[in-house]
Design a protein that fits this description.
The protein is an alpha/beta fold and 240 residues long. 23% of the residues lie in helices and 28% in strands. The longest helix is centred in the N-terminal third of the chain and has 12 residues. The structure holds S-adenosylmethionine.
Length: 240
């Protein structure tokens, strides 16, 4: 069994998506958080794991004076992003690579990681790389699923006719992340902003590992086909 991280579904999802004009709830929340930080003209934003640039498209149309860039591990998604949003700097980069080995070493005022951290088994390593991408006094915004119980979950799944195991829905509790953040001298403070009204999503018959919403105990609840409930939150970290 190979427990190394591997994730191969996203190309299929995002290359066939065209939701540029229909932002997700988490993207709307990220926009509101950025707005509340009162970004000044000329400040910079980096979207890590930007896929084909849907969040960047939304941000660019709302923050005209801010310089926005993004990267993803997938060259195909970066090509699509460049085509859809000309004028924005996009580059291919693996977030799990040691920052000192990156070809482009970004230093930005606001660093975003949306819907990506759950792919990795080691959230500490990823947050350390995000800190290195941020300027002093910068902000890091991470949207992620979290466990309401104090338990961290590392999972792999595979489709019934496939031999390959995939990651994508590791779920960490807030307590573990907080314990780590409290050890970091670079961090001034942080807060959580939970996503309380998730998008209404229907189940995709051809891919039960895409999120959908269903009624559980009278509450609109997001689930995936690995029998997991997905509670989403946004973590905002302010650096010194
Ligand atoms: C679920 S999608 C989220 C896309 C987008 N950030 C959003 O909010 O809609 C996960 C993205 O992370 C990218 N990704 C996966 N592993 C990565 C890595 N090691 N380095 C950079 N990006 C990665 C995938 O290619 C994919 O675009």
């Amino acid at each position: 069994m190979n427990w190394e991280h591997s994730r191969f579904s996203d190309d299929e999802i995002y290359l066939n998506h065209n939701n540029y004009k229909k932002p997700k709830q988490t993207h709307k929340k990220i926009l509101n958080i950025i707005d509340s930080l009162n970004p000044e003209a000329g400040q910079t934003i980096l979207d890590c794991g930007c896929a084909a640039g849907e969040l960047i498209y939304f941000l660019v149309s709302n923050f005209k004076e801010i310089n926005i860039s993004g990267f993803d591990i997938s060259p195909k998604m970066i090509s699509k992003a460049k085509e859809k949003i000309p004028g924005v700097e996009f580059f291919v980069q693996d977030l799990s690579q040691k920052f000192s080995d990156w070809c482009i070493k970004p230093k930005k005022d606001i660093v975003i990681l949306s819907g990506v951290i759950q792919i990795f088994d080691d959230f500490e390593y990823v947050i350390n790389n995000l800190i290195l991408c941020a300027n002093n006094r910068g902000n890091i915004i991470i949207s992620l699923p979290y466990n309401k119980d104090p338990i961290d979950v590392i999972m792999r799944y595979r489709r019934f006719n496939d031999k390959k195991w995939e990651s994508g829905w590791n779920i960490t509790c807030k307590e573990s992340i907080e314990n780590f953040l409290k050890t970091k001298q670079e961090i001034n403070n942080f807060f959580w902003d939970d996503v309380t009204s998730p998008d209404n999503l229907s189940k995709k018959k051809n891919d039960p590992m895409r999120k959908w919403t269903t009624n559980i105990n009278g509450k609109n609840t997001t689930v995936v086909g690995s029998s997991q409930i997905i509670n989403q939150t946004i973590l905002v970290i302010k650096l010194n």
